[in-house]
Structure formats: structure tokens, C-alpha cells
Fold these 3 entries.
Entry 1:
Amino acid sequence: MSGEDFESLEKVLETCVPEAELREVRRLLFGKQLKKLNLPQSALDAAEEQDFDLKGYVFEASPEQLRPPRTVRVGLIQNKIVLPTDAPVLEQITALHKRVGEMVEVAAICGVNIVCFQEAWTMPFAFCTREREPWTEFAESAEDGLTTRFCIQLAKKYNMVVVSPILERDEIHGGTLWNTAVVVSNNGNVLGKSRKNHIPRVGDFNESTYYMEGNTSHPVFQTQFGKIAVNICYGRHHPLNWLMYSIHGAEIIFNPSATVGLLSEPIWPIEARNAAIANHCFTCAINRVGTVCATSHHDFGHFYGSSYVAAPDGSRSPGLSRTRDGLLVTEMDLNLNRQVADKWNFKMTGRYEMYAEELKKAIQHDFKPNIVKE
Amino acid sequence: MSGEDFESLEKVLETCVPEAELREVRRLLFGKQLKKLNLPQSALDAAEEQDFDLKGYVFEASPEQLRPPRTVRVGLIQNKIVLPTDAPVLEQITALHKRVGEMVEVAAICGVNIVCFQEAWTMPFAFCTREREPWTEFAESAEDGLTTRFCIQLAKKYNMVVVSPILERDEIHGGTLWNTAVVVSNNGNVLGKSRKNHIPRVGDFNESTYYMEGNTSHPVFQTQFGKIAVNICYGRHHPLNWLMYSIHGAEIIFNPSATVGLLSEPIWPIEARNAAIANHCFTCAINRVGTVCATSHHDFGHFYGSSYVAAPDGSRSPGLSRTRDGLLVTEMDLNLNRQVADKWNFKMTGRYEMYAEELKKAIQHDFKPNIVKE
């Protein structure tokens, strides 16, 4: 019972733990119990027919006197690649557009306002191979590539903000590649892009073979439904990265990722959730499912999905499946952020001035650590 | 089934989840399975007789060619107060010395090299009351107070480093109070002290009624058994605080705490563990058990114990009980820190120069967040 046989932690707990204890087990593991979101039957039917999981939860906030609730519905999509990795590049891209487009249609039926796809969603996550061809052919212009044009159509059709993480080809800087999330507003305008700030050199994934540390800093996108930011994949290991998006005002930080079981699975539920707690905001962690299937490369296990949403009060949604395509819909009242911030006061008590100074000293090559000896 | 009836998550899982699934549930929740530490029967007998839990686990590292294993045994002690809060102050202190002294004796039998007690361990954690008397009478000199002298005796007797978090009276600065951890070397010398860097203003705990933000920065103590630091209580919510101890070289960061169930319990397993992962070090989270019992104050629940150790590879020990006194002994090979760091490279990829600059800008009163609008 491991690897791909094991669908999800949540399912095992529900099956095995008696109701009397389950409530407390859930509280300890997942925080405040969330209501299930009442999803339209037509959406549930469509998900079943198209063979993906569809789940929905609600993060509530307290009523306030001066602010109405600021309710937004967020959709996270995790999916396998559709065609074999040796199919023609354009066919692979088109097949993914079709698959994810159908899932977005279901998201629209569920009233989703902002949807985010997984990291490099238009391609196999083949950066372990170190091969250039055909993988670099999946790169596109962030501003007017095939995929951005597709996302603009989706955004307009469904009045939905679309966060689209792709492999970017940057023609105005010598055709450089970047790992980039494109943010399209619900009016179908490209609001901007956010590049991956931290690049892994972990095991077979030295992604700096393909692209380097992003130069877009920590942009926050003011959408009609709230202020959002995108912390791509490996950036979730860096608490300062989350912090800086939050300091720039992000209310929801997406973390589109691609990560495999033996490497990171036990730390997956910890990092994005810690970031939601530490920064008084919502975080949305998305991981793909399936295997890389890059024919030239040895097997290194499967991407374990388990996409989830974490709230500033420490509560979190159950994860999607470890193995199946899925759409997670969460309704969140963004007023919760300030309510939790006013209670816990991490920004007020953060002493950032001290840390800015200490960090500046610490990066000097002749830094002397404060080590007390006997 | 909640509150004080519920002994621990780990116990429920062991009872309810079948063996076939339990292995994978444990991996997902706690990371790599730890070996149990083989503890002497005399220690187990003493613990049972003195009515406290005693548990032991081993964190292993891979063998290296050039470095021998750097094995250290660390003991965490969580306990209730012993006498009622209206007993004479000196009697309360002495009773706690006796109780914890007995537990340290058992730690010594288990071969513990470094022991850490809970926050403000010589007193009821009565800072919710806002009353000055008698609570400020529990304050002592860090250098030569009653409790430090007691810890020096323990350290010499058992050849053990003792981390002793107390309420400090700082006579050379006008008798100011601080929340301070005193570090006594295994030779019985006061190595130094580390003051609580971040002070809560949360609910009834505005501890700045008593003491302010610490001015000792982020000292790391080079002991015979490894480099240690102390991040007291509310500092665990601040990722920069953990980071800075780590940057100064800490291999083990203790987090002596006092926190109650409804406030923080679901986030307790997340924060110290995230810090171990993010900083490639061990973290030791300690929380007291029992209630405040400060007669003048309304009931706000019990301290939920659940002390645990987290490792840089994302694994963690089970928690001690939510309700009972306990001693958690972990044997850790500190070589694991560098092994994980060399694999994940968070410091190498941390881009601290960028963050030092960004943080410096962000603290200005006229800071302009990077918000992209349509």
C-alpha cells in the first residue's frame, strides 16, 4: 500500500477512524472544519463523465460592520499529460488545451472567479532529462503565444481570471527561456507575468539547464476578485519569497508546482500551509499527477497531485487525489486575512528593520556569525 | 472526544488505522519512519513511578567518508505546574525544581547530552492575567539566580547542557524584565542567554505588559555536542527569526513555548517543522501541559503539550501527550543537516541579497507596493 495505490490520506482517515475521534483528528490535522461547497449537479456529472475529481469547500470569515464579505471562488486544476511525450509538440499542446479547457468549463459552472493551472501546464515536466529537444519547443511568448491566446479566450468566455504557468520564450532578450506564470484578467487582458524566483538544483532537476532565477521580483496583480500573486514551485521552500509577495499585498498566493513522491511528499502539506499562517493570507498549492514518461530518462516516480488550499487561520482543505486529474473549488471570504492579522499581528511584531540589517550583514563574504564559545 | 480527553493524534492513528495503510499514513504525516530508541529499563521504570511519559526516537544520517557521525541525544521536558498558583512563590519554584530535577535524572540515565525545559518553566504561565503580583516575583537573575544555580548543579552532575527558559530580572538595566533562555554548558558554566525576540499581543496574551522584544539578537551557542540556539515561543511564527539563527550556524533550534488549544493547536505541528525543513536543521518544539489556574482569570483552556522534534529531511518524531508530563529523548546525527542542505540547497538558492534590499525598501513608511492594475 504505497505509491500510486494510495489515493489520499483523507480517504483512509475517513474510512478507518470512528466518527467520535475523527472530528478531533481532523481538527488537529486540518484545523477548523470546513463546510462542503454545494456544487451544481451538472458540474458533478460533467466531472464524472470526463473522469476527473471535483471537490468544493468553503472558508468562512466573521461578519464585519463596515466591510461586506469579499467572497471569491478559486479553482485549482491538476492533471496528467494527455498524449505520449513523443507525440508531435503542437499535438501535445493542443491536447492539453482541450483537456484543461473542458475542466475550466466545469469550473465556470461552479462559479469560479480565478483559476490556476499547474506549473508548465502545456508540456511534460521533462526538465530532469537535460535534453533540449523537443522540450524547449514548448516555450511560448507570455504576451501573445498560442497558450496565452487560448487563456484570453477562456477568460473572456467565462469572466474568469486565468493564471497560466508556462515555459516562456523571451524574444526581446535573445530568446531566453523563463519559467513564468501569465496572469490574464477576467476581461481578457494580459495583466502581467511573474517569473519563478528560485530555481532548483535538486537531484535530477537542475532546472538552470533551461532557465535562470526570475527577474520580475514580487508583483501582485489587482484583479476584480482580489489581489493575487504567483510563487512558482521551488519558491515555496523559501519563506522570504512568500513573505515578500505578502508584503506587496497579496491576498491569495498561488504555488503551481511539479514535484515527485519520494523527494518531497511529506513536506508538501507543510510549506504552503505554513506560508498561509505566517503571512495572514490564502495559499493555493497545485501539483500535477502522473509520470514524466520522458522516454530517455530513468523512472523516478510519479507526481503526487494532492493540491490543496490553506487559510491564514491554519485551516486547510483536504487534498485532491494523489493520482487522478482534479478540480478543487474553494470559496473564500478574503476578509479572513485581516481578521487573522488583527488577531495574531505577525506583521506588526515582525521587526523587519532588524532583519533587513542582519540579512545585509549576513550576505557579506566576511560575515562573522554570532557564535558564543565556552 | 476533545480537549483533555484526547491524548494524542498518534495514539488514535495507531489504534484505528490498519497496518497496511498505517505505514503510508505515517509517511505522509510524519516523513521517514524513525527507529525507536532503546531506553534503559531503569529509566522506563522511574518514569512510570514518577508518572510521566518517556519516549525515544532516532534520527539517522548516511555514513560519510570524511566525517564520523555526530550523534547527540537531546531531551525535551514538558510538565504541569506542581503547586497551586496561590502557594508561596518560593515554594512553587522549589517544587518545580524538584519535579523537573527528577525528570532530568531520568534523562541522564537515557544518555541525554542537551536538555531543554519549557518557556518560563519555574512559574505558572500567568501573563494572561495582566496582574503584576505575585508573578513578577518569579523573575530571577539569568547569571546567578536561584534557578541558574540549580541548573549549574544539574549540568555538572550529569555532564549535560541545560537550556533553562526563565523570567529574567535584569538588575543592571533598572530591573527590567525579559523572557530569557539561559544556556549552561555541560561544564556548569553559564554560556550566555538568548532573549525572546518577538512578543505576542494576541488575545489575552499581551506579554509586553511584562517584557519587551529581546535585544540579544540571534546568538548561537557552541556546545560540546553541537551548535544550538533558542527561539522562544511566539518567535516560531516568524520565519525570519528561525532563518537568522540558522544563518548564524545553529544546528539545533529549541522552541520552548506555552500555548493553548483553541488558539494554536492545528498550527503547532506546522511551524517548527517548516523551520527545520526551510533551514536544514533540527528544531525542538516544547509546550507545557495543564492549565494556568490563575485564580483571577477566566478559563481559556489547557496547554496542550505535544512537544516534538523535527528534522531537516521533513521527518518528525511523534508528539508527547497533550495532557501528561513527559520527557522526549531523541538521538540525532547532526551530519544530516549538511546532507540535506547539499541535496536541497536552500541557502545556496536563497537570493538573500535581493531580500535584504527589498526588505529595506518595504519598511519605509512611504513604501509603494508593486501592485499591477488593469
Entry 2:
Amino acid sequence: MIEDKNPQRTSISQLGEFGLIDHLTQQFEMAQPSTLKGIGDDAAVLDFKDKKVVVSTDLLVEGVHFDLAYMPLKHLGYKSVVVNVSDICAMNAKPTQITVSIAVSNRFPLEALEELFAGIALAAKEYGVDVIGGDTTSSQKGLLISITALGEADADELVYRNGAKANDLIVVTGDIGAAYMGLQVLEREKQVFQVNPNSQPDLDAYTYLIERQLKPEARKDVRTMLHALEIKPTGMIDISDGLSSEVIHLCKQSNTGCNIFEDKLPLDPQLIATCEEFNIDATTVAINGGEDYELLFTIGMDDFDKIKGNPNFTVIGHMTDPAEGIHLVTRAHTKIALKARGWNALNKE
Amino acid sequence: MIEDKNPQRTSISQLGEFGLIDHLTQQFEMAQPSTLKGIGDDAAVLDFKDKKVVVSTDLLVEGVHFDLAYMPLKHLGYKSVVVNVSDICAMNAKPTQITVSIAVSNRFPLEALEELFAGIALAAKEYGVDVIGGDTTSSQKGLLISITALGEADADELVYRNGAKANDLIVVTGDIGAAYMGLQVLEREKQVFQVNPNSQPDLDAYTYLIERQLKPEARKDVRTMLHALEIKPTGMIDISDGLSSEVIHLCKQSNTGCNIFEDKLPLDPQLIATCEEFNIDATTVAINGGEDYELLFTIGMDDFDKIKGNPNFTVIGHMTDPAEGIHLVTRAHTKIALKARGWNALNKE
């Protein structure tokens, strides 16, 4: 589809590697006080002074993590930054810098990479992170994006996965499951398009779901909100692989069990309607669907009053002694053991 | 070739993504004082105190940067770390941490990834860097390794590419060109093997060249040596793309010209002999061959006495006013303009 959309096509090899890097990175300005030197030397130079530094990295592979049939390159660039920034937010740290490496096959013209980098630049600006380095090379097949994100925080601000205690409340930001159903809608439209390329999709009923899939946002705002509410979570993780996987990570690393209540799960009305249309159980989607990039965290019971009624946060359950296991309590009051299904990129081949 | 060598093959998908990451990373111990938390949370946590932080990243792609027909996976793991550590050394900083992400097709069994990670672990130990994070996923084709390296230095220790002045001496560590000729020897053997799989290669005459290609080392020792000699380079870069490219980077960023003298280039006798056998000009190889991972740096004339006769360092030329251009002065005393040829991974497809 890319080929059709770009009447002008410039071969990447016309610029050469150095020319390409210069061309794609000249739009990046350094805004973080901690960035002393960005792109242009053997390494970037940073100064975090007395702050702790957090580092996270993610690899996105065409055909495994994204499908360019329905993922516009600008959106892909944006999302690839969000995915990494989300990990920094999940430490309760402030994202500050990213490096961006791409491997790309020669079917991509320069104009395609410009779109990708426009999305990267937009996200970098939106989240206030400096693009301080990267690598650009060819691939044997498809597009691959590797991003490393850095962030900073005071030592006493950082929140790990292993600090939750029995009786802590389990809280989720925003709503969950929508990104997964957005993907199902897009996959269906792709099938329809393959059968009849002239069909005009009517996606009005799914705009929220599709936006959650194509243009997710990292919850950079949660750090600020929690700070204002004078809450420090005891444990925190971002929801990239699905609620079930993330809850299990928190419980295992904190040595707790938990009860999650089905009737507390925050679901968008569009998600519920679309699950009915697709004849899929909305709870299953909310628990196992990934890529929402909401934050899942635990707080002491004493902090409940601070978030009660706050529309940004939903208490979905509580931690227990580890012997009680990790369960979903259904609307029918039965307990089902949660399993880590999530997104297993390694099983997709 | 991998398939033949591994009678035991465990499918990666048997472990799942989390199981695979646990399995491959359990061997990594944190040794750097600046590593507060390594693998196991949303992000690693580091504390560099009053040091500056340097960050560099590289992407290695099968079929573009390496060929598994002659590159053993353990060597590849080792080299992928070296390539990144070398960039940190080129800032005159001390390498401290790396993240390692890999994308791998399902033709690789678990045992192959174990070999790769054994090489990564060996290099991490050798260079004293902690493996603090990464990502593991499937690829549509082949193997891809993305590493980000971090290092630390005091602000006044850092050496950039842009500090060289006219009349500064240009110095190279070790010898150059051998890694490129090692590749030529391996490529020739691959051709022979394809014609006659039973042929027994006799590589005794090329051991140094092959080692330089398959198991290069980053010059972590140079920082210590220069410190002991009380020399601070004015500009520095590592030789990954070839001397010519790197000299041009230094000159352009420092706004200088230069004269490099052909008869000063440090060439190993095995390189000279093999170039004769292959009927290739050794100077061309020394100037355009990449992957030596030696350091190229400039020093003030006043520091010449400190390195005179030191077998680790060779003065190969001097910086000039920018108007004089960037030249190689041949043995016949003619001047040839240097061009950035280097390794252009984007032209290899």
C-alpha cells in the first residue's frame, strides 16, 4: 500500500547511510537539560546530576508487532516511541531521551522513512524526550524499529514491581481492552479489502478502539497526578502484554496473591458494543488483550480516600497472601485462576 | 550450518517469551556500582552520581553485517558487544552497561541463542559491563541484534570529534585493515566450501586476520594508557567504517583539513602478505577497510614526546587548515583526496 500512496519515490541508497541519518535526524532538537550532546559523535553525552537514571528498550518487528497494511508509518513511528516511554512511566520516572535504530528493506523509499520519522519526532515532542542517537541500516526483509528510552527520577520516587503487600489495592488507569479490539476491527477490514479492494469501510462505530490501537498514549500524566494526590504506589507496571500477564508479574515479584473483580474492570462502551458484535467475551479481551499502555499499580489501603471517585483511576481488586493465588472473581462470584497469555510475539510465527 | 552442528534442538516457542528471557539472562550478574537494578522490571535503574553518561547504539543484521556461514554465534555475540563498547571508548569514557535486544526467526533453536548469549556474556565480563535489559522477539527472516551501550566519565575526560586543531598530530592505535582482509579470506573459503563441502581449509597463514574479523576487541585499555601518559586527545573516534571515513568525520566536525602519510600506516605483516596473494593494494585496504575497532585520535604537538616510540600508538599524519583539504600523501609524494567509502550497509542489498 505504501507504494501506491507515494507518487515520489527516492531510493534510500541515493543518500547513503550518513546522508540518510543526517536527513532524518536534522529535525530533532535537544530540549532536555540533561542532554549535553545529542546525535553527531560516537555517543551522546548526558548529565543527570543527582537523579537516578532508568533505561528500557523495545524491539518492534514488521509482521510480528505491526502490519503496514493498516498501520500508517507516521502512526507506527509515534507508537514505537510511546511503547518505550510507557516503560519509563511505569517506573514513576520522567522520560528524557530515546535512541532510535531502524533496519529497513529496499522496498521502502526515502519518503516512507520520512513519514516514520515524522511520527517519531511528533511523539518525541509530545512526550518531551530528546532523540539522542540511533543507527540506520538495511534489513533482509521488512522494517524493524529498536528504541531505547532513558528517564530520570529521584531515588525515593521510583516504583518497582516488587513492592506490593497483601491488602494493597490494585488500581488501573483509563480503560483496558480497547487496543486489542481495535486490532480485531482492523484485521477484519483488511480481510474485506483483500476480497473487495473497492469497498468503503465505515469505521465510525469503532473510532475509539482504532485510535487506541493505532495511536496509543503513554501515561506520562499519572506521575504528576499521583504526586499532586500525595500517593506513592507500592508497585507499578505498564499494561503492554495484557492485564493478566501484568498482574501476575506484580504478584510474583511482590510475593503476593490477588483477587481481581470482573465487575470492576473499566471497559469503554464502544468496547462492550464491539465485543457483542464480534461475539467475543469483553472480560476475556480486557484481561488478555495487550497494548493499552495504561498503568497498573498498587497502593496502601490508607490511600483509598485520595483516589475515590477520581475518574482517572479504577480500583479493580486487592493483593492477598501468596497462598491465596492469583484470581479473577467473576460476576457469578466464582474464582478463576489468571494465566499469563498476553502477547507472545514468539508464538506468532 | 547451525542445524548440522546441534544434535539437540529445543524450539524457542516451547519456552515462551518470558521463559526465554529468564533462561538467557539468568547468567548475567550486576557488577558495576552504578547499576542499582538490572533486568526484571519495566526499566533498569542506574546511578551515575556526578559522572557524565554516554550512550551509543548499534544494530547488526544477518546478511548485511554478518554471515553465519563463517561467523560462529558465540563470536557474533562477543563482537556485537565489542562494536558498541568501542563507541564508548571513543568518547574516552568507561563502558558500564549494555542492553541487548534480538529478533530471531524460528529457524534458530534455543541452543543457537544460548551460544549467542554465551558470547555476549563473555564480552560483558571481559569489558566489565552489566547487561541491564533487552527485548527478545521473532523476526520474519534471519537474526538481528540491537545493543545500546552506556558509559561514564568525568566531564573533563570526555573527548569529542570536534576538538582537533590545525597542526595536531593524528594517531592510530594498533594496526588497521586486518579485519577487512580477514573477511576476504573467509568469503573465499565460503566459496570453496560451496563448491566442495569436503575440502579442508588451511587457514594457518591468516590466523591474525581472521581473529581480527571474528573476534575484534574494543580498545578499553587506551583510556588507561592515555591517562597514565597524561595525554588528553583533542579529538577521537573509533575505526568502524574505515580510516578514510573516520578521518573525514574528525576533520569535518573539527573544521580542519589533514595529511595522512601512506608510509606511516600501521600494517601487520600478515596483512601485507595476504594483500599480495589476493592482488589487492594494502594501502587501499588499510584506508577503506572497516571493523578494526582501533581508536583514531588527535593530540597537540607538545604531547608527541609522550607517545614517541610507544608500540601502541602510531602517528600517521597531522591536521591542517580546512582549506588544505583532506589528503593521503603517497609514498611517491603525491596527494590524493580521501573519500568516505567505508562500510555502507545500505548499499549492500
Entry 3:
Amino acid sequence: MRFTSERHLADDILEREFTLGDIPGVLWTPAPAARPAPLILLGHPGGLRGMYPRLADRARHAAAEGYASATLELPGAGDRPRDAAADRARADLRRALAAGEPVTDDIVDRLVLPLVDRAVPEWRAALDALLDLPGIDGPVGYSGGVISIGVRLAAVEPRVKAAVLFAGSFVPRAVVEEARKVTVPLLVLLQWDDEHNDRGMALDLFDALGSPEKTLHANTGGHTGVPRFEADDANRFFARHLT
Amino acid sequence: MRFTSERHLADDILEREFTLGDIPGVLWTPAPAARPAPLILLGHPGGLRGMYPRLADRARHAAAEGYASATLELPGAGDRPRDAAADRARADLRRALAAGEPVTDDIVDRLVLPLVDRAVPEWRAALDALLDLPGIDGPVGYSGGVISIGVRLAAVEPRVKAAVLFAGSFVPRAVVEEARKVTVPLLVLLQWDDEHNDRGMALDLFDALGSPEKTLHANTGGHTGVPRFEADDANRFFARHLT
């Protein structure tokens, strides 16, 4: 992990861009405190540059409660090399949606599974590096982004102790099966009128998740309309489980 | 409204039992403050005596945030005269559940509609009396209890400005239609593994509610397993809408 830039934001938050191998990422740390800060991994749909304002906002909100936050560019997104097979699957998805046709399991599998297979080991490698830094320590939370990545990470990475998942994207059937293996506390956000998401499938995924303690927060509104108060709820969820 | 007893609880909360005509009720008011306290009506399934510990707990939790709370015995419950038709419908419901048979619309209608028809005017009359008391003023919130009563009250009573509903009982189809007329902000609690409740019907009711701002909190666990943190969430919901 190599830091490539650093700047101070308001409230004494330090924002550092880094590269992990050739993968860009960003780390936000709150004002130094007596104890190391627990870390929240900030998921996103890919494209760090476009997502930056929302990610920085979430990081500021987490820092106010003493958490460090970090994120990593996704495979095939932003400045990272495109993946021709994923691009083809994405084109097939758009075609199906535009034509009002059902999105087949085949399209979802081709779009999401290779992404999860590549991203999860990268985020775990980032964890290795991030938890070696002074001032940061476990436990680790994961929040938002592609829900299949969050599910796999929560299922396989023992350092992730709690996760906030956003039911806002297609989920391969294989990942629904993996969901049964997740045991950490979960807060699942669902936009009730999400134009990019099948509500019934999202509820089925919530049902499948194996965690004894899981909470669903569903709100009226579309994909990007998550109410502001859910950020406070997420902070309180992490406060219950990471501290 | 006639007060029949009063006592002081911890934290300077005043608990007063009253009768409204022949209907018993309880009023909890927080320590006197510069401004009149907003009022929360505490719904319950009927049987004030058995429900008292949980109701007093909710009232204490609300008083800590400056709210007065009040509740009223339901028609046919507690010491109020039994309703033979409702008792027959309840017996039919228990028989169907015990036999693993479907609960018909007819049973639900016979059990719930007369209760709603009687209870809602009583709670509105209680509001008239409660809001005349010194130290209490609107806006009014409604919380918990038989969800059909909460839906009807939110639909017809303009002084109710926000409601927390508990998706924990059967809902007549007529009430699902009334739900479309509700416009106040709602927080709906659903126990995901509720042994007394049909999850699909509860989600359909949430979908039908007409409020532009509505939030569903679903938690793992059975009917009485609502997590403690939901009481804090309810307080914050009321703080957003009643103050």
C-alpha cells in the first residue's frame, strides 16, 4: 500500500489516496484519539471519482463517531482495465431492461459473479494493509455498495464483524446460497420503489441471510433516495456492534 | 375524563389512571417543562392490566424525551364488557390456527372490524379530553397495538401527525384500502418470524399505506421479540415529526 496524496478535511479528518498494487483507494481517518479507530469499509457501485462526494460524506459521518473509513476501486471500474465479458453482460442487462424483458439468471451471473470473485480478495488484501497502519484497528464493518460483494465478504472474512448492506442490485442465485452462511449482525437497506431492483428478490435475500441478528430498513423512494437519517441509523448500528 | 389515582414514578414522571365514561385509561406525563408535552397514544392488543409493565416501560422511554403518553382499554378487553360476536370470531381464529387451516377474510373481518369501529371513536374522544389538560398539547403521535386501529386513526384523525405501527395482527381487506388514505409519516415494525402474523400480508399492507414518507423496520425474531433499540428508533422518529 502506497499513499499518493493526503489532505486535511474539516473536523481534523485526514484523507489519503493510496494504491494497493495497481488498485486505487482512499482512506479517511478521524482526529487521532487515545484508542485506535475501528475501520468501516465503504462499498460503492464502482467509479471512485464519480462516487467521491457521496463516499466522502459517508466517511465524514463515520469519522464524527470515531471510525476510520476506506474504499477501493472495483475491478473493471474507474481507471482500472475494463473487463470485456463484464461489459458484454452489462450491455445485455441494459438491453433486457430497455426492452422490458426479464433479466435472466445467466446475465446476472455473468455480470456479478466475476466481479465478486475478483473484488473480495482485493478488499481482504486491503484489510491486511489497512489494519497494519498506526491508529487503525479492528473490529471492521462493511457498508453499502454491490450487495453480493458485501454478502461474500461477510461470509468469508472473519475480521468483518457487522455489515450494512444496500439491497440495490441484482444478486446471483449462488450468492443467495452464500448468504445463508453469514452470521454477523446485519442492517439491510432497501429502497421500496427502487427502479433498479426487484423488491421480491431483495426480500428473499434478506430472508436467506443466516445472521441471527438482522434488521431490514425499507424506505419509500427510488434507488438514490435513501433518507439522510439512515446514515445516523447506520452509525448507531455500528456503535452497537463495533465498539 | 375523571382521574382515579395518581402516583409518581422515577424521573419525576406522573402516572394517573383515569376513566373516560366507563373506559379505563392511563396517562403518563414527564416532569413539567417550559413547553407543553407532545402526546403519544400507546396502542396495545387489549388488557391494560397484563400489558401494564410494557406500556409503563414505553411511557418512561417516551417521557425521557419529553413526551406525555396515554392509553385506553380496548372494547371487550380487560374489565370492559365482553363482546360475544368478537369472542366467537376469536374462537374461530384459534380453531383455524390450531388446525393449520387458512384464516379466512370472514374471520378477520368479524374479529377486527367491530373492534376498530368502536375503538377509534373512543381514542378520538380521549384525545379531546387529554389535549384539554394543562401541560399537554399536540402534535400527537400514535404507537403500536392493533395495526388496524392505528391505520384507521391515522387516516381519519388529523391531530395524529405521525405513527409507529406494529405489523403483528390480521388486517381486514377494508383496512388495507383505508391504508391508501393515510398520509402522515409512518414507521412500521415487523417481526420477520412472527408466529401470529402473515409476513406477505404485512408487506402488502406496508405497500398499500399512502404516506409519502414511510419506513419499515423488520427484525428477526418472533411476535414479542422486538429488539430494545427499536424503542430508541421510535423516539427518534417522533422527534423528527412531532417537534
